[in-house]
Amino acid sequence: IRYEKNGGELRIKNRKKKCDLASSNIVILADGKVSMCCYDYKGQYIYGNALENKLKDFWQLPDIRKKRDLAKTRKYPLCQVCANY
């Protein structure tokens, strides 16, 4: 459960149903793997490798678009425990 402080009161923070970061961010790990999320520090949700592909490909390839759409709607287990959303 997440709480937010608003005007001196603590209240339960509503979880967003949609992840805005999935459509605007990618994360490149130290080994070149491109992940969908900065919380994926173990590299479990990988789009590909930045050393092998151009960055623009990670936005345009159909299979990666499908993965991004799943991430946007929080379908991955990682999304269910996200502290930001």
TrEMBL record:
Q: Which domain of life is it from?
A: Bacteria
Which Pfam families does the UniProt record give?
SPASM
Concerning InterPro entries, the annotation shows:
4Fe4S-binding_SPASM_dom (IPR023885), Aldolase_TIM (IPR013785), rSAM_sf (IPR058240)
Q: Where is the 4Fe4S-binding SPASM domain?
A: 19-82
Q: What is this protein called?
A: Molybdopterin cofactor synthesis protein MoaA
